[in-house]
Here is the input.
Amino acid sequence: MRVLVIDPDSARAALVAEGLAGVEPLEVRHAAAYDEAEAAAFAPDVVVVAAESPDRDTIDSLREASIANPRPVVMFVDRSEPELAQAAVRAGVAAYVVDGLAPGRVRAVLEVAMSRFSLMHQLRRDLEKARADLASRPTIEKAKALLMKERTLDEDAAYRLLRKLSMDSGRPLAAVAADLLAFAGVLKGDAG
Amino acid sequence: MNDLALKLGFVPLLDAAGLVIAEAKGFFAAEGLNVELVREVSWATIRDKMALGALDGAQMLAPMPLAMTLGVAGDPVEMVAPIMLGSGGATVTTASRLGLAGDRSGEKLARLVALRRGAQASELTFGVVFPFSTHNYLLRLWMARGGVDPDTEVRITVAPPPRMAELLAGGVVEGFCAGQPWSAAAVAAGVGEVAARADDIAPGAPDKVFTVTRVFADARAGVLTSMLRALDRALAWAEAMDNRAELAAILARPEYVGVPAEVLAEGLGDLTLHRGGAARPDPAHGAWLLEQMVRSGQIGVRADAADVAARVLSPALYDAAVA
Here is the structure.
């Protein structure tokens, strides 16, 4: 497990390392401030950051940008605000954890954060796929209509043919449909 | 008073002036309000605490209540911004070695980007304070004005304002857009130059707002009216030139901004707090912000944009409180 701890104070990193003793392989790296190049090179499995860290906005923007390599983030909040951590966890805002954490709980907390993150990541990808499917539906419908007309097939058979083309070429249905329409255009001289 | 103190969040910046002065000069007390100011170091924390009800009200970057209401990056929370806390002061600052001083049109930037592309050099990196910030949008508008595509021809990254000068000096970023005193700090350190100011790019663009949740505004309308009156008086007090020296001295205290008064005083000149009706929310500002969110790819084009802008930045509560 690779853990990046962003905290001006090194005590928290030591606590995390102690709590993860026995996890193999393990690398806990401590940084006083977030450094993008360093973080990219280290490629942590999970980032631990103090909620009062001024780098919080940077790390937050990384988490929200659905770009390359998002990482699960565990946030430690001040001992004086335990209600906030509980409310945040219930609301799924972020994996807030109250400070004063015993080393014995570190491993469980990080594992929960990581599994929650991968679940959210999967949900987000499913949602994106569903959106893309929806967007590609008109293309598939048009390709189907083209096949029905040109090959005098019924709707079912046209769809099965598209599926077969997709499977044979190992490409998504929407891509095959788009190619088919493009070729038809070229043959008719539309896209000369 | 048996009411629990109202918890209001602020970020240590010059445009926390409205909240700080309302407390320090007794404008909240004069309205019978029991207020506790809570200092936060990041916008993400302010957003989360507002969403969870750990804060009753807070200073926010102007696009944040719109983003929260629309549910961009998080569950939707209906927000209102019943008073503006300041505009102006955001500055595009670039590394001195780039030679972009005074490049209001962005033309020098465009030439530099083309030159670097020809030489296959890495793309320029710019820092902003938060994705949902007027600073981000001003930077992008400045680039677009010169013909540079902010999405493909440069990199925009998020970094805390107090670290901007250091990142600029270290070559981690080649430029940044942030409020004062962080531009002044980079210039004073000899590492940065001012390329363009907010007023060169989009005059009057809203920068900070005071926000509460719609739920709070409905449930505690009387308290909110008193808060708005206190904030409006505090902003008018802070705007008056005669009070600027005292304002800088109050903001400089460690529990508020905690930066020397001389440094603060320098940045105050760029700031508009109350003059010309600046504190009154304007749905047109909301529409402008939503347009920038669309241009930046943060949201899609929405049919209800005008409606959302009118709800979040309605002047009705302000007018009722201050009239």
User: Anything to note?
Assistant: The CA atoms of residues 63 and 81 of chain B lie 10 Å apart. The domain at 91-201 of chain B is CATH 3.40.190.10 (D-Maltodextrin-Binding Protein; domain 2).
